[in-house]
Amino acid sequence: MKEIFVTITGFKHYYGKSVFAVGSLIKCVKEPDNAYDSEAIRCEYFPLKKVGYIANSVNTVANGTSSGGRIYDNVKKKFYVRVIFTTYSHIICKIVENTEEVRKEYEIRRQADKEEREELLKLRREPDITKDGRKIEIYANIGNMDDLNSVLYYGAAGIGLLRSEFQYLGRENYPRENELFLAYKKIAETMGEKLTVIRTADLGADKQAEYLNIPDETNPIMGNRGIRLCLDRKRMFKAQLRAIFRASAYGNLALMYPMITSEEEMDEIEAIIREVVQGLEEKGIPYKNIRTGIMIETPAAVMISRELARRVDFLSLGTNDLSQYTLAMDRQNPLLRNKYNDHHPAVLRMIKMVVEAGHAENKRVCICGELAADTALTEEFLKMGVDCLSVVPACILPVRKALRQVDLSQEKINEK
């Protein structure tokens, strides 16, 4: 099998903040079927200089067309590699000559990364506690059933965000209630007493399926998506809610609603919940009174976050959408790559506003967007009073390491 070495030179179709470093060296192995496998950096198995992971097996195709996540452009001699958790980015990789010097450099880097990973793995069973003894739980974000083992392997406190869209996409019709129930039941039983927060279907915008028949929109990111679509399609919404409540009898589940911008939406949701619960009771189907939460993803939700906090048990900041809505920048737009800044003071102030609003109503506030995994902000988030962080499984250990190095004792003195 032929070895090919590439270096990361940049990004294409930029979507938010990259998790990769320009200049990193990757070894790919050409297999008989012309597929390319990134041997050194497999998803969730090998870190790349603290900055992320890529998909482990993708196909090579001619003339720059896409297949399985990686594009190989025969003309420009570049790879475009699909990033695993910055969904709409591609890494641009330049092929480098396979020389003894390159192979030696690769082995040096691989060994350094291996040693770093071994150090991180020592934290798998360590508690999420700051130096001064404050407990800040780290949860996992997952988007399919395959991630469950990683959640447990890395010692997450639970699942802070289960993106339930995976059951609606890549198919030809709506999933039936029982299909949804069996999936949620398996998750509940696997996680046991650990909390699993299921976000109701966040469909629309970039999450489309032909059978959904969602009309074309001029600006789908700001269109009929998330809870808006669910409230328009109450039959679909009720089926999912029934499935979640039925599965709640088998574990520790919670509900979270995406793209909430008004109390009127909550009025409508609560009426549907009452109807669903009444139907279960009439049929004698067991369920638990599960906790509910709201994803704060828009400036509107930030400004009424105290009112929203009174309606639910917790708030969770979806910083991906919140950042782009606050900055009025499409994070998929490659022309804005150097202008898009999710560390912008306005974004950070909005996060702090939500934390303060939630705490004023004695509600927990979590961050579940990409920023939660940004260890450059871990200390700042903890100083704001964030109660928990939820990140992709591969980022649990780096965030735990950063969290355990924070000392908030001086902050407590200042508060007094």
What's the gist of this structure?
The protein contains 13 helices and 15 strands.
Q: Can you give a write-up of this model?
A:
The chain has 416 residues and is an alpha/beta fold. 34% of the residues lie in helices and 19% in strands. It has 13 helices and 15 strands. The strands form 2 sheets. Strands 8-9-10-11-12-13-14-15 form an 8-stranded parallel β-barrel, surrounded by 4 helices. A hairpin with a 4-residue loop joins strand 5 and strand 6. Helix 3 packs parallel to helix 5 and helix 5 packs across helix 6. The longest helix is centred in the first third of the chain and has 22 residues. It is globular. The relative contact order is 0.12. About 17% of the residues have low confidence.
The helix content, as a percent range, equals 25-40%
Would you count the extended β strands for me?
A: 15
Instruction: Please describe the biggest sheet, giving its number of strands, its sense, and whether it closes into a barrel.
Output: 8 strands, parallel, barrel
Biggest sheet, strands in spatial order?
8-9-10-11-12-13-14-15
N-to-C series of helices and strands: EEEEEEEHEHEHEHHEHEHHEHHEHEHH
